[in-house]
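Comment thread on ticket #2218

A.B. wrote:
> Attaching the input chain for the structure job we discussed in standup.
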Amino acid sequence: MDTTDRLDTPKSAVDDATRRRRVRFVQRWILNPPMKAATWLGLVPGHVLIETIGRVSGKRRRNVVGMHVDGDVGWIVAEQGRHSGYVRNVEANPQVRVRVRRRWRTATAVVVVDDDPQARLDTFAMARHAAAVRRFGTDLLTVRIDLAPGAGPDRSR
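C.D. wrote:
> Ran it. Output below, let me know if you need it in another format.
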């Protein structure tokens, strides 16, 4: 009976859920507050703020994510996949804003199920970020961000 817990859930699923909870706690209360400020100021290369609309509340939700920008397309690898609130918000409403280089840009986000997130991380050219995502992620998932043409600020929200 060492492969299951008392609810007959496979042990790896329990381990992933526990790991997700721990990572979420550390990110939410320790890492994200200073990272949000630093990302807002444009001090953290390779990271952006993504603003989604809450699928239930309808409120703006801002999260720090690592993103590789290639022209007018950005790529994000979500560490926790569909367990991430911003990914579920994107699935409910793909219209987002992304703060890239101290400017807001409107965009459309699409979850790309058939993409290889491990290979996508290799394109990021941020070895430490890729290593952290691989180490702490439990369900990697790729999100494509189609940025609106032009780099002008968007203050519509």
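A.B. wrote:
> Thanks. Noting for the ticket: Helices lie at 11-40, 85-92, 117-122, 127-136.
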